[in-house]
Design goal:
The chain has about 190 residues and is of the alpha+beta class. The chain has 2 domains: about 120 residues, Jelly Rolls (Sandwich), CATH 2.60.120; about 55 residues, no CATH class. It is built from 10 helices and 8 strands. The strands form 2 sheets. The chain has a 4-stranded antiparallel β-sheet with strand order 1-8-3-6. Strands 2-7-4-5 form a 4-stranded antiparallel β-sheet. A hairpin with a 5-residue loop joins strand 4 and strand 5. Helix 4 packs across helix 5. The protein is elongated and about 55 Å long. InterPro entries: cNMP-bd_dom, cNMP-bd_dom_sf, RmlC-like_jellyroll.
């Protein structure tokens, strides 16, 4: 298992000691998921954190009409998990699905929590990661969903061309909170 990108991403938030890295790698496994495999099913306990080595992962819930509502997408070199479910030790409200064939580094939440208590540097990594991704990055996204038009949110998604090009139209529409027909109208209006 080649872990260099994983370690590089960890160290972008906080530089970890060799001992901490080794202890973390000792609880990691490399797993493969085929397109449409669920890494986590809504209603199940979230037991793992994931680092995406290759592929694309979606994070979604299902509304009362049975429609998938995508909240976020994770590309290569991203960390993914049902973090709230792990923290609260409750079943997840979200599904995590492979939108492409994926290779991930997977590590158990319980063993990871023990390492957070053992290694101060890993705890600081975790703190800085949560601050950046669950506060700084998430807050503007929530404001955007509440106050901005679907057209403006579409244009923001379009700025990340590599992600946009990998998504199916129904994923984009779901993420924007609109129907595929409404998405077609927006695209037509912009072209």
């Amino acid at each position: 298992m080649n872990n260099s990108e994983f370690v590089k991403q960890l160290n972008q938030y906080y530089t970890l000691s060799k001992e901490t890295i080794q202890d973390l790698l000792d609880i990691c496994t490399e797993e493969y998921y085929h397109k449409n495999d669920l890494l986590l099913e809504s209603g199940s306990m979230a037991r793992y954190y994931y680092f995406i080595k290759s592929g694309l992962i979606g994070y979604y819930t299902v509304d009362e009409q049975g429609n998938n509502i995508y909240k976020i997408f994770f590309e290569e070199n991203s960390f993914a998990a049902s973090t709230a479910a792990i923290i609260k030790n409750e079943p997840s409200d979200f599904n995590i699905i492979a939108l492409e064939d994926c290779s991930v580094i997977q590590y158990p939440a319980k063993a990871y929590r023990e390492l957070l208590e053992k290694h101060h540097d890993l705890a600081l990594f975790h703190l800085y990661y949560l601050e950046k991704n669950w506060v700084v990055k998430k807050e503007p996204l929530e404001v955007s969903l509440k106050y901005e038009t679907a057209k403006k949110r579409y244009l923001q998604l379009l700025e990340n061309r590599s992600l946009y090009n990998r998504l199916k139209q129904h994923h984009i529409a779901s993420y924007l909170g609109i129907t595929p027909t409404q998405l077609s109208r927006i695209k037509k209006e912009l072209s």
